[in-house]
């Protein structure tokens, strides 16, 4: 998508695979040599055992302050970056924590946005297992509230961030998205991707695209 005037970089970030075979290493190398979009952290792949801390730390070390925000999402999510940019533009460039608010024990955050100064603050702190072991989204919120609570600006976006309602879990009991939506999460099957593309792209184009599968 054309984001005029915006510098946007996309990376897939993961830990070291538990079964890191030579075949898998070769496939990852081909992908990265082709697109330059893979980052493998120096720790074993995990969901709730500190990976998120090392994710933010890597971002801080290998990016610079030319970015306003760092955004984390899942690999089964569709992100409409134009809509995201439009919603971020009026927001503060510092001390920002922007996400879907969900007070469940597991936050199930489809998209979380930190201003880059918050990312650097995380990176300069030492790793504390008690602060980062647990549901990763809850741990991030807890860390921010404990360390930068007085200056943290929390902004919730509860209208434009969705799970695919066809997913059978309690987090999906919301109406379907609109063309103004920012994120649609838990897209697991080709028909679900087609529904998302139909939402944003004229059907004559999406029909041609999916006829190739």
Automatic annotation (TrEMBL):
Q: Which UniProt keywords apply?
A: Glycosyltransferase, Golgi apparatus, Membrane, Signal-anchor, Transferase, Transmembrane, Transmembrane helix
An example molecular function term from Gene Ontology annotations: hexosyltransferase activity
Q: EC number(s) per UniProt?
A: 2.4.1.-
What sections of the protein cross the membrane? none
Q: How does it sit in the membrane?
A: Single-pass type II membrane protein
Pfam families registered for this protein in UniProt: Galactosyl_T (PF01762)
Localization, UniProt: Golgi apparatus membrane
The superkingdom listed in its UniProt entry is: Eukaryota
Spell out the GO cellular component terms annotated for this protein, sorted alphabetically and separated by semicolons: Golgi membrane
Q: Which InterPro entries match?
A: Glyco_trans_31 (IPR002659)
PANTHER family per the UniProt record, alphabetical = BETA-1,3-GALACTOSYLTRANSFERASE PVG3, BETA-1,3-N-ACETYLGLUCOSAMINYLTRANSFERASE
Membership in a protein family: Belongs to the glycosyltransferase 31 family.
The protein's name in its UniProt record: Hexosyltransferase
Taxonomic lineage from the root: Eukaryota, Fungi, Fungi incertae sedis, Mucoromycota, Glomeromycotina
């Amino acid at each position: 998508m054309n984001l005029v005037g915006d510098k946007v970089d996309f990376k897939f970030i993961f830990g070291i695979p538990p079964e890191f075979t030579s075949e898998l290493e070769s496939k990852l190398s081909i992908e990265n040599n082709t697109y330059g979009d893979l980052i493998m952290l120096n720790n074993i792949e995990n969901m709730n055992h500190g990976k998120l801390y090392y994710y933010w730390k890597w971002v801080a070390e290998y990016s610079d302050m030319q970015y306003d925000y760092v955004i984390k999402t899942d690999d089964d999510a569709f992100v409409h970056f134009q809509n995201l940019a439009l919603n971020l533009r009026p927001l503060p460039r510092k001390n920002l924590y922007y996400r879907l608010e969900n007070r469940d024990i597991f936050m199930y955050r489809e998209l979380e946005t930190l201003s880059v100064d918050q990312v650097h603050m995380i990176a300069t702190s030492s790793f504390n297992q008690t602060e980062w072991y647990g549901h990763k989204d809850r741990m991030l919120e807890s860390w921010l509230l404990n360390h930068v609570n007085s200056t943290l600006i929390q902004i919730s976006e509860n209208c434009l961030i969705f799970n695919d309602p066809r997913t059978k879990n309690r987090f999906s009991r919301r109406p379907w998205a609109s063309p103004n939506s920012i994120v649609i999460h838990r897209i697991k099957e080709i028909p679900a991707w087609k529904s998302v593309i139909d939402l944003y792209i004229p059907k004559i184009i999406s029909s041609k695209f999916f006829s190739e599968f």
